[in-house]
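In this section we walk through a basic example: taking a raw amino acid sequence and producing a predicted 3D structure, encoded as discrete structure tokens. The instruction is simple. Fold the sequence below.
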Amino acid sequence: MKNYDLFIGVDVSKLKLDITGIDQDNAIHLKHCVIRNDAKEIKKYFRKMLKNQGKPMIVGFENTGVYSALIAFVLQELGIDYCQLPSLEISRSRGISRGKNDKIDALKIAQYLLSHRFKISLSTVTEIHLTEMRLLYTHREKIIKSISQYEKEFENTDFLPREIQKEILKSTNSILKSLHANLKKIEDRLGVILKEHAAMEKNFKLITSIPGIGKQTALYLMIVTKNFTAFKEARQVACYAGVAPFPYQSGSSINGRTKVNNLADKKLKSLLNMCALSANKYDIELKEYFQRKVGEGKNKMLVLNNIRNKLLARVFAVINRQEPYVNLRKYAA
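The resulting token sequence is shown next.
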């Protein structure tokens, strides 16, 4: 980590950015100001700052999705070090506090940067094709949810006269036809993006060579790991997905059971659960493992969670080796 002289906290909202800067002595070096959350305005402000300050600086702001995308792109373009921080991490670092406003939040982010300067990792803008994949995947999920909702309309056909539902069913069929057409376009575009990037296409094929892991799980894993550059090992992804167990113990009075944490990517956890169920059904090795552990008296969900972790370990194994999964049981037999 570089030795920074200026720590700048930015509170991001839809229309504006609140900015405050402090030095290494926690003294206000950059008075609070407000600028529009607009690429031109952000670029103008930080260019002026680079010209006037001339000091090593780092900028920190909460990851607010699309609202924080502009400042991230501008800072990377200008070559300014920055860090996107989880909102929960910032709020918990504040300790006991009463009330809040954007000015105070910007200062707290700057103070967080100062106090954690030896621990924080610099952020980079996600590659354009990965950002597009994330947006397409999210849109695909919305369409699938809409299809499921509209298909429920047909449940009423057995209980009400068809004349009453005629117009509703006609409209529903039209909407479903359009949704399915758009779903196919999105899936085709996702396939095109993979083909345009050889490294991603290869990783996709490697992941789907593992029994139990399907195309959608493989795509989502590549999106959240930024094509396996954001995480170094399977245990980190297991923690991110909420399938890594943690102890709950303190002194002699508190000795709770080891369990997974609720802070997780619930979508990834759900996908891994479906993969574990599929692998338990079709992968002989994991099926025997499940039956053996349950026979020993282990909780079924605990064993299933172990299978989720085993699948993640297999994913990182094939990615690191750059070779497809090999079922050794075939050769052992």
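Looking at the output, two observations stand out. Residues 162-196 form the longest helix (35 residues). The chain has three domains: 6-115, 128-196, 215-332. In the next section we compare this with other chains.
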